[in-house]
Amino acid sequence: MTPMKPYLSFDEVHAGAQPVQKGASESGAEKPHAVVIGSGFGGLASAIRLAASGWRVTVLEKLDAPGGRAYVYKRDGFTFDAGPTIVTAPFLFDELWTLCGRRREDHVTLKPMDPFYRIRFDDGTWFDYTGDPERMRAEVARFSQGDVAGYDSFMVDAEKCYRLGFEGMAETAFDNFSNLLEAIPAFTRMKAWSSIHTLAASHFKNPKLRIVFSFHPLLIGGNPFSVTCAYALIASLEKRHGVHWAMGGTGALVRGLVDLIVEQGSTIRYNTEVTRITVDKGRASGVELAGGETMTADIVVSNGDTAWTYRNLVEPRYRRHWTNARLDRSRYSMSLFVWYFGTRKQYHDVPHHMMVLGPRYKELLDDIFKRKHLAEDFSLYLHRPTASDPAMAPAGCDAFYVLSPVPHLDSGTDWSEHAERYRDAIAESLEKSVMPGLRNEIVTSFYLTPQDFQDRLLSFKGAAFGMEPLLLQSAWFRPHNRSEDLEGLYVVGAGTHPGAGMPGVLASAKALMSVLPEAASVVRARR
Question: Which helix (H) or strand (E) element contains residue 296?
Fold first, then answer.
């Protein structure tokens, strides 16, 4: 088994060292210029919205292909999505195609998942999670007949959180203190000071059902015992809009968005790392690239890790709010160990999305989030895309990745020493639980560690989702979409409002537009 180096890229025409450029209009120089740092979903969505609003856009990507955490690897005939795989708010993608006069369904097919997930407990029992209330009640009854009514009352609270927390807050920036004051009644109605596990426990007596209805924040970097119960909105979001798979992988969505950007006349440059945000007369004036090249801009939008952006790209003299000391004492999400592998046989009993829980739950989360201790046991998210999309692997084979939440780099773990042993322990666990004979069937294998999140993806402390989504690190308390420190700097993606996950980072691009000056006014001011 080998670590994930050298890194593999798309075998697409978009990849490569040269800029991707198409259809720049003659009047493009008259438009105000926006530089977008990073081509994750937040950066790609921002680029599309900016261009549709009259901006000339240049996207700069450190890697050799687009996607950021949604990068794609091709190896030995297998296709592996690097990170996000669960599409829960397809309307946010549809909006981007609509802005460009296109229909998403003409370019990317989204396939509904059924079930959404299987949650397997260490004793071999499992819960199949769907969007069908009748089937969900039947699943709840299998574990505890007395908790069926609790499912209905929990979903009432989840719907309230969706209306107040997602529809009411996600797409508008928390730009000043008055925004927070306006939101306090909604936070109060959601009882947002309670954790999502506390909310689940108020509706369900069965401990397994409490896990089933509170695990979702783990998919966006939060501890269910600590994050606000507002994240119950995810249950309502999924029930309303479903859980989908993009045929061809998450990379199909990335490639589709890149195509839209190119059609708009914008530019994407790969193998182009930003090393500094330049400042002129107290406002962001552009960027400096590795190698010394500079690029001027009217605004800079960072889709990079927010803490990394402030610590490494903005000089300390321009940071009165997000100082190094403040960033250091903030609390960050866990990191991830992600093992990608392909097998010569197919495991038909494994569904597309599966949570494989270990013998401990709260204690393991305490190790990860509080003690920053790499435990010997683990709970896993097992992803088998070939359950829905056989083209992700050679004929008769299966593609997988398995994701294990682990502490970020404050644990002091030397992953160059631990990674292979950790991977083998995961393989042994999967072999004993849901994939018999696994280690004899593997034909390709590589992995991503917290060190890669820091070194390759430039995430502070190797945290996979930015700041932990605690109540006092959410909304107004999270780094703002319009920088508190530097005029002309804006941030999108997991580290800002509203937070991580595909819906969150796509919504951050909409929040950006709510605080951005109109392109026409920028042109007038420039003259």
Answer: strand 294-296
Q: Per-residue pLDDT tens for 61-70?
A: 999 999 999 9
Amino acid letter, residue 214? S
Q: Cα–Cα distance between 198 and 120 in angstroms, integer? A: 21
Strand 110-112 to 56-60 pairing: unpaired
Q: How many CB atoms lie within 10 A of CB 383?
A: 23
Sequence letter at residue 265: G
Beta strand 353-356 pairing with 117-120: parallel
Helix (H, G, I), strand (E, B) or coil at 431: helix
Tokens representing 189 are: 């109605």
What Cα–Cα distance (Å) separates residue 406 from each residue in 255, 401, 420, 457, 521?
30, 16, 15, 17, 47
Collapsing DSSP states into helix, strand and coil, what is residue 233? helix
Which runs of E-coded beta strand occur in 409-523?
Answer: 442-448, 489-491
**472-516 pLDDT, tens per residue?**
887 878 899 999 999 999 999 999 989 989 999 999 999 999 999
Reported pTM = 0.93
Take residue 177 and report the two structure tokens written for it. Answer: 């203190």
Of 444, 348, 357, 435, nearest in space to 396 by CA:
348
